[in-house]
From TrEMBL:
<dbReference type="InterPro" id="IPR011705">
    <property type="entry name" value="BACK"/>
</dbReference>
<feature type="domain" description="BACK">
    <location>
        <begin position="21"/>
        <end position="123"/>
    </location>
</feature>
<dbReference type="InterPro" id="IPR015915">
    <property type="entry name" value="Kelch-typ_b-propeller"/>
</dbReference>
<dbReference type="Pfam" id="PF07707">
    <property type="entry name" value="BACK"/>
</dbReference>
<dbReference type="InterPro" id="IPR006652">
    <property type="entry name" value="Kelch_1"/>
</dbReference>
<protein>
    <recommendedName>
        <fullName>BACK domain-containing protein</fullName>
    </recommendedName>
</protein>
<keyword id="KW-0677">Repeat</keyword>
<keyword id="KW-0880">Kelch repeat</keyword>
Length: 234
């Protein structure tokens, strides 16, 4: 029997994707499949941006949602993704979930939202207007941010893959290629092409975007490529 259970767990692990990861995690927890439960939760944390777009996410209990968004390693580019996911969850059944929003909002690291975003939410979000405690909580954070107070909560530390990016060409050979080498699994991935072929460029990766700056375009016409362009890594 144990061999059958193990085989089923291996099969389910291979089927993990954003549409079913929460369901598989719940199944694994109910049946005591610890390794599968751990793998499913790792997948959920790593792919949160996709997970929160799925129907399963909207079926989470309030306690499950709080546990998830409290994770230090939640893989998001900015905290606004987490806030918007919570708001989406509340709106799915606002009558029942609205009164539960305050403790959930405290699990979001609102101290890392921008003042302009907070101002817009306090002004226009209908749910916040119905839950004064949440609006007051965000107002206090907004005030602290405008006074440049240091956040009392730490930033998230997502366990993202280590990737080396290769962009453009060299010397007189200007190219528009952008590729990524995953150091952990030793694999190459071809990414979106640069807007302008370049050689001798500088590059930087920030919040999910690869920025290519400067360099020279030695393709016909020999135009200097000094403007900034960006590509979204896959």
């Amino acid at each position: 029997v144990n061999n059958v259970i193990e085989a089923c767990c291996v099969f389910l692990e291979r089927q993990l994707d954003p549409t079913n990861a929460i369901g598989i995690a719940n199944f694994a927890e109910q049946h005591g499949c610890r390794n599968l439960y751990r793998k499913a939760n790792q997948f959920i944390i790593q792919h949160f941006s996709q997970i929160c777009q799925e129907e399963e996410f909207l079926q989470l209990s309030a306690m499950q949602l709080v546990t998830l968004v409290r994770k230090d390693e939640l893989n998001v580019q900015e905290e606004q993704e987490v806030y918007n996911a919570v708001l989406k969850w509340v709106k799915y059944n606002e009558e029942i979930r609205g009164p539960k929003m305050e403790p959930i909002l405290h699990a979001v690291r609102c101290q890392y939202l921008t003042p302009s975003f907070l101002r817009e939410q306090m002004k226009n979000c209908d749910i916040l207007k119905k839950v004064p405690a949440c609006r007051e909580y965000l107002a206090k954070i907004f005030k602290d941010l405008t006074l440049h107070k240091k956040p009392i909560v730490k930033e998230r530390t997502p366990n993202t893959p280590r990737v080396i990016y290769i962009a453009g060409g060299f010397f007189r050979h200007s190219l528009d290629i952008l590729e990524g080498y995953n150091v952990d699994d030793r694999s190459w991935t071809q990414l979106a092409k640069l807007i302008v072929p370049r050689s001798g460029l500088g590059g930087a990766f920030l919040k999910g975007m690869f920025y290519a700056v400067g360099g020279r375009n030695n393709s016909p016409g020999n135009r200097a490529a000094t403007s900034e362009s960006r590509s979204v890594p896959v």
